[in-house]
Amino acid sequence: MSEIIRLRKGLDIKLQGVPSEEIVQLDSSETYALCPDSFTGIVPKVVVKENDNVLAGQALFVDKNVPQIKFVSPVSGQVLAINRGARRKVLSVVVKSDGKNESVKFPAKSVQSLSAKEILDSILEAGLFAFFRQRPYDVIANPNDTPREIFVSAFDSKPLAPCFEKVLEGRELEFQIGLSALSKIAHTNLGVCCCQKSPALTEAKNVDVYKFSGAHPAGNVGVQINHIKPVNKGDIVWTIAPQDVIMIGCLFNKGAVDFSRIITVAGSRISKPSYAKVIMGAQLSSIVTGSLALTQTEHTRVINGNVLTGAKAGLDDYLDVFANCVTAIPEGDDNNEFMGWIMPRFKMFSTSRASMGWLKGLFCKNGFDIDARVKGSERHMIMSGEYDKVFPMDIYPEYLVKAMITGNIDKMEAYGIYEVAPEDFALCEFVDSSKLELQRIVRESLDKLRAEMA
Amino acid sequence: MSLRNFLDKIKPDFEEGGKLHAFRSVYEGFESFLYVPNTTSKCGVNIHDGIDSKRIMIMVVIALCPALLFGMYNVGYQHFLLAGLDKSFWPMFWFGFLAVLPRIIVSYVVGLGIEFTVAQWKHEEIQEGFLVTGFIVPLIVPATCPLWILAIAVAFAVIFAKEIFGGTGMNFLNVALITRAFIFFAYPSVISGDQVWVVDHAICGLGTDAIDGCTAATVLGVASTQAAAPVFDMNMIWGLIPGSVGETSIIAIALGALLLLYTGIASWKTMLSVFVGGALVALLYNKCGPDNAMAAMPWWQHLVVGGFAFGAVFMATDPVTSARTETGKYIYGFLIGAMAITIRVMNPGYPEGMMLAILLMNCFAPLIDYCVVQRNVKKRANRVING
What we know:
Shape of chain B: globular
Mean pLDDT of chain B: 90
Largest sheet of chain B: none
Structural class of chain A: alpha/beta
Oligomer: heterodimer
Structural class of chain B: mainly alpha
Largest sheet of chain A: 7 strands, mixed
Shape of chain A: globular
Number of strands of chain B: 0
Helix content of chain A: 10-25%
Low-confidence stretches of chain B: none
Number of strands of chain A: 20
Radius of gyration of chain B: 23 Å
Mean pLDDT of chain A: 93
Number of domains of chain B: 2
């Protein structure tokens, strides 16, 4: 066990609607869908037709450039629709569940006896490689690359995200098998929070365990990589979420993939926020229901994911495969705040002491009910040092963003674009008084750079 | 919500094709001034911090208020003192108020007029940066500054120091200081010497026209022309000395500084290092400087006279034109303090070194930042070489 890596920069946004410890068992959704847009950087090629019968684990589409990467159905049933948008872009492949949840069977294998190639082939065959992302560019990894290392962050520090120790209960063995499998592919590092006590995490075998302490974004894998061993130009590292490591473990342990996830359904507009067990790709209306229903449907924003990186969604949308939480907050579009630039704003969260919200943070432990208003208009970058306070990486975020805005690739490289992902800039975007859309800027720049380098 | 309804009702007139479309930027400016726009986030984060640039600018304006109010009083006080009149507080304040108010109005009307026009022309929103600039300008010129000169100077500064670079956030020189520098170099007689610091005529029946030989030099003016520096007295702290409207009272400036530091809007690193730089260099001149009154003036007295404190608190900390890296702020601030004292001591022709020091360092701020960021870049490059 190495020393604790303490991060002094960051920000924990305390939101209302913290999930209770209970795990709600939800009825299964009628339909499930996989959206190619969730898998950044791939070109989907649909390999099923409408009305085809599929099993859980059977490919719905593959990557046109690297066809070994399969994107598989999370449930068994019938392909209901292949939705396409402008220029026939595939928006989603919808599967109507038959309720049996039959899955493709694989032989259970002992990880110890397998070579790296055999493990990778098994993961590819089971359709689990789609959950590996790579730095640079924060896109779906390429199995033909040799990664320098693999990084797993065992905690999510974003607002209202599930506690991974709770998710892990009873699945410790599969998590360890998953880690062992990863360690065969490449040297694997596990980042844990200093408050996590589960031996499955702190004493995980075949991996290097690093302990982190500090506010969000300490749980972001990009921040952890930056502190463990930063990505240099030419390096490729893979990252994978801890719940997906469990899926890999399950594949080798039981010979079948379990596509269920434990997510949080939380936020001030959820009647009884708690954990829920769902199958990925479920329709949100099947999740936000019963005790997890919305308290109010009008002027409410349902978010497919967490408040920082998730996307605004409707109840007829489908749970993003990478999302580990569904959040509902007030939209705020019915709120006409009079002379907000001078009002004391006792109830509004702000990192700045120019408003009085910090008083509430001091005395009231319930957290804040933050709505989705931008609360200002976009400006050029005016204040300095705002991003630095919430960006615990050895990078000058302001300068990197300026290089991105001006499209200067040499400077982007020099300032460390290979080390970042849009999620690393989420807090910067939150605190930014100039209200720049930083995550969009970063995503577009990464895409542009990737296209240039191809 | 009748005001809201009214705004919604007249909004179509200002939109594309509406009969008042030429005033769209004005409408938007006032609408967002009255109500926080309730647009919600479209992409990226779903929640945002409550802070925005409007609130930041207003905080700076509030921080400037003590200096302005005291400055108004002091304008009256200096006039009544020189005229030998004995008056109570309010007549002196009203005199100063009436002397300064036209300068505030001219500064805002000219500056905001240009801002509105440019915003309309570029189809952009009005940016609130001039709220602060327009407030600072009347505070850093004498209360006697002719309005037409002020108007030309503000127009020059807003157009050539800000708008041509792209507006608030893109300028590299402090706009208020460019206004002052424009007057300083184009019309030196209205901003230097010993004739300009006290209003020499009655305003609306207050004060008197009968002031003979109106001379009242600033402390720095005296120090630059005479062999010995003026002896320190507490009025230099309270601010009851001749000078530009807002720069005289250390107490009023300190109140503003407290608000800026408490809210975190101004960087304590910049502010502190300006004072440290000024103090150290002044101390150096005290010990081994040239043989003149400026060099002999005690180091702590340098910090409280002239525009040093005002510049350190309100102008050096301007986030747009100052260094933007945290390390850079120390260097930038220190060099401003050092340069200001050096200009005062070495060049008696420019007794007020602060303006030139800040403008000079504005030019060097990007270089300072470049060096700081380049260290990070080198570290990254070495990582690749060393593996």
